[in-house]
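User: Hi! I'm working on a homework problem where we have to compare a predicted structure to a textbook description. Could you give me the structure for the chain below?
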Amino acid sequence: MRLTAVEEGHLRNGLPGTIGIAAVLPGARFDLAQVRSRVRERWGGLDRMGLVVDPPAGPPALVGHRWAAGSPFDPAAHVTATDQDLETVLADGVGHSLPPGRPPWRLLVAPDAIVLLAHHALLDGRSLETLFRMLMDDAVPPQPAGQAGAHPPAITRQGPRVRPGGIGREVRRIGARGRRLPAVPHGEARPSVAVVELDPEMMRAARRRPAAGRGATLNELLLSSYAGALRACYGPLRSWPAGAAPFFATVPVDLRTRADAQRLGNGVTALRIPLPVDTESPVARLEACQDLVAAFPHRGDAHRTILPALQAVARTMPWLAGVMARNLARPEATASLCTAFKWRGSPSHFLGRPLARVVPMSQLAPPGTANLCLVHTADAYTLTVVSHLGPGDARMLGEAVAQDLKAVAAADAAVG
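Assistant: Happy to help. Predicted structure tokens:
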């Protein structure tokens, strides 16, 4: 089975491509045999978890990779223990590719946590969430082998027909020139990961802002507070190098429908938005981001129209998938990926232990970038920053986001 153009691009963009998700479950380390038994029970029938990348059977520039069935499902080969703390596991994982010649995923049983790492060609972030839900004690039993996770979800059209003008505007947004983060000197950029636990009461107050409005979603809060963090860390855009181009954040949008919501693979697109870094007020930044996010449904429809044609062309020319992927990986095109989601169905338990927190890990991008993910689990809010800047910049940006969220929560407090 040939890789899709999106999957091929993840292999050819020159990056490690490792993404991850962790479940924090305080207590003694889980028994490895019990975890392996649960993984076999819940994932053993998922064809996609047994796929191996076969190298091209010809010139790499002309022939694409293929998925091949690996050896019979063996949890012992994938599920291992580690003594590292969670942040160290994530920092090590993000900068390294998973071993070739085997299905590109592994599950690490760490103190107080279990961590799933996978190559982005095999699974996207929504797939990692789906797989973790399958492991929980109260999860619905998996579908029979061959029925779940065998192929990536198809991109389907929904809603009204998109007008050519809307498609043209979206194409221009995709290609619009942006700017990278103020970079450290050449050769000094280093991968770093920071996990920031956010105060739940503060987050609840921030989600009620602006006081006269409808309240804010996690995505809107993350985008606006990141704009404020950039301003606090690097100053207004006019003080940045590279002229007058805006700073774009890229937001993943799931294209799955209700009918294929549990499908594993790569089923998202990415929408670019200019962040209001030059806006001084935290609430004004939030309102600006709410206006930008309100356009996502129509913009997503445009992508459902554009992407099948692009993927069909790239499928016939595998080298084109690599060119497109490397172009989109440039800091000027994708300086920051920002995503947020809520773990629904809480409380969740794993082997009888309550899930306290979900910690996601975005993939590492080239020097001059930082990727952020915000997750709400039960009463816990967790921000993860993966940066390729200075050694401490992930922590600096994460703490600056937390400070901006605090400012949003305090705004109009007397009214709210």
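For your comparison, note the following. Residues 296-316 form the longest helix (21 residues). The radius of gyration is 21 Å. Good luck with the assignment!
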